[in-house]
Design goal:
Elements (H helix, E strand, L loop, with lengths): L19 E8 L4 E7 L4 E6 L13 H17 L4 E7 L5 H11 L2 E7 L17
Parallel strand pairs: 1-4, 4-5
Antiparallel strand pairs: 1-2, 2-3
């Protein structure tokens, strides 16, 4: 009689990364997305308030952003990341708390940069209303 096929356990390969990186924070009014990359832009780890277990309006809170940032920072530190620049984008409430929790997790912050897109002349206005 044939033996049942053995299941392979997929071990996630822990890759080593450079000591320097960039933390991209997108803080919208509904969620906070934290992506940690190396200096070339290749993703190392990411986390969101939704991934951290928050649902609905709780995702937009500073505490949810803090929990998500700690998870992303811990994962990237295990791969060897030590120093990061922080690029913040968006008007959300999780901007400051995310930066504080990244620093508290043990990553050394070298620079903080606001990369929120600002329109210079805005969109083209809609056509005039004819009555």
């Amino acid at each position: 009689m044939a033996e049942p096929a053995k299941k392979r356990k997929s071990k996630k390969k822990s890759k080593k990364v450079d000591a320097n990186g960039v933390v991209h924070i997108k803080a919208s009014f509904n969620n906070t997305i934290i992506t940690i990359t190396d200096t070339k832009g290749n993703g190392i780890s990411w986390a969101t308030a939704g991934k951290a277990g928050f649902k609905g309006s709780k995702k937009s809170t500073p505490f949810a952003a803090q929990v998500a940032a700690q998870a992303a920072a811990k994962e990237s530190m295990d791969m060897g990341l030590r120093k990061v620049e922080v690029w913040v984008k968006g008007p959300g409430s999780g901007r400051e708390s995310t930066i504080r929790s990244i620093q508290a997790a043990g990553l050394e912050i070298t620079a903080i940069k606001d990369v929120t897109p600002i329109p210079h002349n805005g969109c083209r206005p809609s056509k005039k209303r004819r009555v």
